[in-house]
Amino acid sequence: MFEIIDGKKISNDIQSKIKLEVDQLRYKGITPGLAVIIVGSNPASKVYVSMKQKACANLGIYSEEHKLEENTSQDSLLELIKSLNADPKINGILVQLPLPDQINTNLVLETIVPEKDVDGFHPYNVGKLVAGLPTFVACTPYGVIKLLEHSKVHMAGKEAVIIGRSNIVGKPVAMLLMQENATVTICHSKTKDLPSVCRRADILIAAIGKPKMVTKEYIKKGAVVIDVGVNRLPDGTLCGDVDFDDVKDITSKITPVPGGVGPMTITMLMLNTVKSAKIANGIK
Ligand code: GUN
Q: Are residues 181 and 88 in the same domain?
């Protein structure tokens, strides 16, 4: 029998703890603050941003949304980031990606001061992660590790295989799994015989962006499968990178889509924002 890893429940449990922490900070006169910047009107980005605002409101975190036109110049976006860098109400700055073509994404991410980089995308924070130093960890990889911890999956000595080498998920999740002493393999579009590499995995992380690509032939019996994919099928329904119904019976634990990794991403953003507020106020 396989177990469904309930990301919604784990996320709610963590949010209850964050709320208590925010309440305690309020007694000290501290309110964590998050600024979210959205450029243009990508429908998925709009949904994510409104979910982030809602989570802040539920937890008592101050939030402000900055909506910029699709044709906004790079300079005006950089000016906004610089003013938020200097704003003491703001502990976290998040620029929703992707950005329109006239804007250099790397330059934008490097303009956010590392102390307010709650997305963990600044090269300084990425470097700290690689070096094993404490830092802001990107929210989706952080959420994957928290899901595994809360589901009592022991990572030390296990074979972990990641499909996908993105800066946002694949690479950071590999670093985190290595820190947990897993043996890590990162696969990508040029990997030879992908199914056989994936069948080595005690823990398989799918972060490819291809609907239901991972089928039974990719799975070792008893593997834990974490599906980071969020894809929309032609009929409008959401699905992951894993063909859930095809593989579930040979897994030991598996995340659903939706309701697996997704809810954790926003919760980790809240965790990072509170952590930033604590550091800014000299609280451990
Ligand atoms: N777009 C898709 N995922 C993310 C994320 O984790 N952070 C930001 N800023 N944009 C995204």
A: no
Question: Which residue in the list 6, 116, 117, 119 is annotated as catalytic?
Answer: 119
Domain extent for 220: 139-262
Read off the pTM.
0.97
Q: What is the mean pLDDT of residues 34-61?
A: 96
Is 280 part of any domain?
no
102 is catalytic: no
pLDDT digits (tens, 9 = 90+) for 54-90: 999 999 999 999 999 999 999 999 999 999 999 999 9
CA of 4 to the centre of ligand 1 (A): 25
Please indicate, yes or no, whether residues 158 and 247 belong to a single structural domain of this protein: yes
Let me know if 96 is a catalytic residue: yes
Is position 63 within any domain?
yes
- The tokens for 127 are 């470097």
Asked whether residue 79 is domain-assigned, the answer is yes
**Cα–Cα distance for residue pair 224/243, rounded to 1 Å:** 14
Ligand 1 centroid to Cα of residue 45, in Å, is 8
258 in the same domain as 143:
yes
User: How many domains is the chain partitioned into structurally?
Assistant: 2
Residues 109 and 176 reside in one and the same domain: no
In angstroms, the Cα distances linking 128 to 32, 108, 178, 265 are: 23, 19, 14, 20
Strand ranges, E, within 131-217:
159-163, 183-187, 203-206
Q: Would you call 119 a catalytic residue per the annotation?
A: yes
Tell me the HSE value of 81 on the side-chain side, using a 13 A CA sphere. 24
User: What pLDDT, in 10s, does the model give residues 117-157?
Assistant: 999 999 999 999 999 999 999 999 999 999 999 999 999 99
